[in-house]
Amino acid sequence: MSPLSGTSARTGILRIVTHAMATLGGLAVAGIIGVTMADIIGRQFGMPVRGAYDLVRVLGAIAMACALPLTKAVKGHIAIEYFFQKMGRRGRAVVDTVMRLVLLALFGLLAWRFVLQGRGFLDSGEVTTTLHMPMFWVPWLAALACLVTAGVTLWHLLHPGRSMIRPR
Predict the structure, then answer these.
(1) Which region holds residue 132: left if phi is over 0, alpha if psi is between -120 and 50, else beta?
(2) Do residues 49 and 39 lie in contact, with contact meaning Cβ atoms separated by under 8 Å?
(3) How does pLDDT run across 99-145, given as a tens digit for each residue?
(4) Which of 19, 62, 73, 78 has the lowest CB atom count within 10 Å?
(5) Which of 163, 141, 125 lies closest to 20 in space, CA to CA?
(6) Nearest to 20 by CA among 70, 58, 55, 62
(7) Largest separation between any pair of C-alpha atoms in the chain
(8) DSSP assignment of the chain, as one string?
(9) How many CB atoms are closer than 10 A to CB 104?
């Protein structure tokens, strides 16, 4: 097996995980819609959804965290193109490289902090207000999303000018 095929396999795994997280995020958004609709309709009949606020809060966190890797992979983030395009090719390459290194450090730091926060939630027994659902796993999912996003950032750093996943 050549070293290149190992890289291709790792890229394939990163793509699969990125798409899986995006699917989970999409399901979380659908869950938010479903819970909100059920709560609104239920309130009309005096039967609101118990814990709707808890569910929407957790599903919102899942949706935001799980959207990060795919957004980064398709380069769907906000860029200040006006200033970037004013630079020469070498200047753009330097700024792009520096920003990706900063992002790697940032997402690594965020992942570490989310793991610590999840551990703190686990140790303290943190639960949602109404449903008393354990919360430790939400920051751990966010940590995973940050690690996958860091992986996508590293891929872009190692493959300048290429898109890991093309937007549809």
Answers:
(1) left
(2) yes
(3) 899 999 999 999 999 999 999 999 999 999 999 999 999 999 999 99
(4) 78
(5) 141
(6) 70
(7) 65
(8) --HHHHHHHHHHHHHHHHHHHHHHHHHHHHHHHHHHHHHHHHHHTT-PPTTHHHHHHHHHHHHHHHHHHHHHHTT-S---HHHHHHS-HHHHHHHHHHHHHHHHHHHHHHHHHHHHHHHHHHHHT-B-TTT--B-THHHHHHHHHHHHHHHHHHHHHHSTT--SS---
(9) 17
Q: What CA–CA distance (Å, rounded) separates 59 from 126?
A: 17
- Domain parsing of the chain, residue ranges: 3-158
CB atoms within 10 A of CB 83: 9
Nearest-angstrom CA–CA distance, 92 and 125: 48
Question: What is the rounded distance in angstroms from the CA atom of residue 27 to the CA atom of residue 25?
Answer: 5
Candidates 69, 71, 50, 58; CA nearest to 31 is 58
Predicted confidence at residue 120, as pLDDT, reads 98
Measure the CA–CA gap between 58 and 141, rounded to whole angstroms: 11
Q: What is the pLDDT of residue 79?
A: 67
* pTM score, whole prediction: 0.87
